[in-house]
Amino acid sequence: ATVLPLPCPVSQADCYVSLWLPTATCERSRTKTVRNSDNPVWNETFYFRIQSQVKNVLELTVYDEDFATPDDHLLCALFDTAKLPLERTVILYFKPSPNATEELEVEFKLEVASGPHETIASNGVLVCRELCCLEVEVAEKTKQKSSKKELSLTVKGSFEGTQDIVLGPNGVVSPACPTEFHYIKYAEPTLDVMLPKKRRYHPWSCRYSTETGSPVVMLNSLPMGRKTTIAEVGITSRCCNCTCHQDLDMRFGFNLCSEEMAFLGKRKRYVASALKNVFHLPHDLQDQEVPVVAIITTGGGLKSMTGLYGSLMGLKKLNLLDCITYISGLSGTTWTMANLYRDAYWSQKDLDSHIGEAQKQATKCKMGCFSMDRMKYYNKQLCQRKEEGYRTSFIDLWGLMIEYLLNDGKDPHKLSDQQEALCDGQNPLPIYVSVCVRDSYSTNDFKEWVEFTPYEVGLLKYGAFVRTEHFGSEFFMGRLLKKVPESRICYLQGMWSSIFSVNLLQIWGLSHSSEDFWKRWTEDRIDEVDEDPVLPTRPHELRTRMYTPPGPLSSALRGALTDRFSVAQHHNFLKGYQLHNNYMENEHFCRWKDTVLDSRPNQLMQSPDQLGMIDAGFFINTSSAPLLRPQREVDVIIYLSYTTGSHTSSLDKACKYYSEQKIPFPTISLTDEDKKNLKECYIFQDSDLPGCPIVIFLPLVNDTFQEYKAPGVKRCCSEMEEGQLDLTSSCSPYCMFSVRYTDENYRKLLNLSEYNILNNSQMIMQALQTAMQRRRQKMSAC
């Protein structure tokens, strides 16, 4: 390196280079320190075995070593090794900018490795590497009656990490069964054995000394499947790699799961029959003619829960509920969905009993939520959850409070139980929506859509899904290694509708409508540069980048702004996966590529042991994202807005977001007058945009309901009070934080949401007819 900036004007730098290539090894490498030199030369060689189908980005960081304070960061280059030509030596110079005087000179050579090819599985975004399982048995040669010793075993980068073995009296070993480690075969794995301390007596000095042993075993040097003895430790390594997606314990792809496909085949019969009856069609619809109609909702606490009951009642009275294939929710609407799907045939029955039970819960006194008996119950349930293997947080406590708010007692139901309500296609498929977030990043900078169905839970961007009953269990490289019991649905409701995951940056955004003022404090500084000499590039290769870390003040401010009060924590089922070399060109990944880490694979896949998930309303208050997967082929979206704030705000944000992501969604064209005085129903469509759904927008507004108690039936003077609802003021009984309604307020809100559906039945019918016509035209074109 040459002409590095001097952090201290009275002394020269003591430089060393740190090398990090996490796809090849879990440990960082570093050069020796060259002291008192502004032009250090190291001449050291490092070897990495890389998998060419994986995105390998080498991070080269130059530090100035300090003894009293943390080492000073001088320069950091992020280099995609896919740029290197094969079997040629290349010397590259990395500079912070074209005119900078400081630079780092590195010589590269990419060679073909000898040995067998690695077996991998990939969906074009994620790569599942070859996995090995190491079995370790400990047998003490000399049995001591009273001694007790501990043995520490570590395989860095493995699923298990470090495990301790206790050597008890009389040769008893705990645990008695062999200790296992699961690790990536070609990641330079090592076994570190910390042997028990031994005391030796030295007669010439009349003193004891303590000796420790710490042998290190290179695991790739071990014969596969054969036992090897190291000191008092017997170890056996065996291969447990997969050759295809079917060998994994999780689903690895972007298509719909087989259970959902089977459901769609059954549901089409209900939808086709309902459409035939509603529109008095002379013949049965073919499968290709049946449009896919979906309900999406916005959150809003008890208001959205009650509003959704009313909207579904309206659709039921129009005989349109059987025309719905999907219903998605977030926040308070998940409360309605979870309650309805306890009944396996809820949509085939009258909804009065469900609505009556919901009214009972919405109007009851909530003070018992904080009683001493209830507190003891919370403590018992949280302790049990922790024993099961979950990491508990305040969100779990909030979930238990929701359980009390919505039920008379303990709710034993689980999300996977809702499969019973789908077995014959008798109800719409429920989809619950959340977003995954990261510490130290705002929700706008990092969020990844997560969908929950009774069949599976998955991250849309990666095409990675686990069975619903396995969500919360521990996975490594796609294998289920530690199963924990499935969560009760109240804990998921706490996550789907958490008001406690807010941070200061979002509060600022609510009051100032923009977070741009703070972006210089919360965003990483990364600049794209060209190598010298410039290497030929291909589309899948990443530009070389220079990273500048934040200073102490910026880091402190960033932490204060982005820190969330509480986040739901669940074991990360993506643990161990790496990104495919062409992941940035994958159409499925690009569809949801919207975080600041998407072009930084090391940081993107350096995911923590726990996934942090929050209410999707903290990003965009809509549950539409999973329904815009092209595999679901949604033709019509019934957009039910129950938000407490601006109804058009979340719709505008969704439209802007999908436009930026190049996801087909109609343009929202509302005048300023419309936004000030919203009507009950709007239809948005774009027939020229392939795959674009028709959107029926139904905001919960009190318009004609003030004068009409039913479509075409005017109120008399004594009934006018029934049409008066305060939905928007700060003193409204329907504010987001309200957890109790009066019977009158509940009934009014229920009737309003039902009326708005019934009063706009013609527009809904029109959209369904248009969707059927499009389906027929598409069939004719084929």
TrEMBL record:
<dbReference type="InterPro" id="IPR041847">
    <property type="entry name" value="C2_cPLA2"/>
</dbReference>
<dbReference type="InterPro" id="IPR002642">
    <property type="entry name" value="LysoPLipase_cat_dom"/>
</dbReference>
<dbReference type="GO" id="GO:0046475">
    <property type="term" value="P:glycerophospholipid catabolic process"/>
</dbReference>
<dbReference type="InterPro" id="IPR016035">
    <property type="entry name" value="Acyl_Trfase/lysoPLipase"/>
</dbReference>
<dbReference type="InterPro" id="IPR000008">
    <property type="entry name" value="C2_dom"/>
</dbReference>
<dbReference type="InterPro" id="IPR040723">
    <property type="entry name" value="cPLA2_C2"/>
</dbReference>
<dbReference type="GO" id="GO:0047498">
    <property type="term" value="F:calcium-dependent phospholipase A2 activity"/>
</dbReference>
<dbReference type="Pfam" id="PF01735">
    <property type="entry name" value="PLA2_B"/>
</dbReference>
<keyword id="KW-0443">Lipid metabolism</keyword>
<protein>
    <recommendedName>
        <fullName>Phospholipase A2</fullName>
        <ecNumber>3.1.1.4</ecNumber>
    </recommendedName>
</protein>
<keyword id="KW-0442">Lipid degradation</keyword>
<feature type="domain" description="C2">
    <location>
        <begin position="1"/>
        <end position="94"/>
    </location>
</feature>
<keyword id="KW-0378">Hydrolase</keyword>
<dbReference type="Pfam" id="PF00168">
    <property type="entry name" value="C2"/>
</dbReference>
<keyword id="KW-0963">Cytoplasm</keyword>
<dbReference type="GO" id="GO:0005544">
    <property type="term" value="F:calcium-dependent phospholipid binding"/>
</dbReference>
<dbReference type="GO" id="GO:0005509">
    <property type="term" value="F:calcium ion binding"/>
</dbReference>
<keyword id="KW-0106">Calcium</keyword>
<keyword id="KW-0472">Membrane</keyword>
<dbReference type="GO" id="GO:0016020">
    <property type="term" value="C:membrane"/>
</dbReference>
<feature type="domain" description="PLA2c">
    <location>
        <begin position="243"/>
        <end position="782"/>
    </location>
</feature>
<dbReference type="InterPro" id="IPR035892">
    <property type="entry name" value="C2_domain_sf"/>
</dbReference>
<dbReference type="GO" id="GO:0005829">
    <property type="term" value="C:cytosol"/>
</dbReference>
<keyword id="KW-0479">Metal-binding</keyword>
<dbReference type="Pfam" id="PF18695">
    <property type="entry name" value="cPLA2_C2"/>
</dbReference>
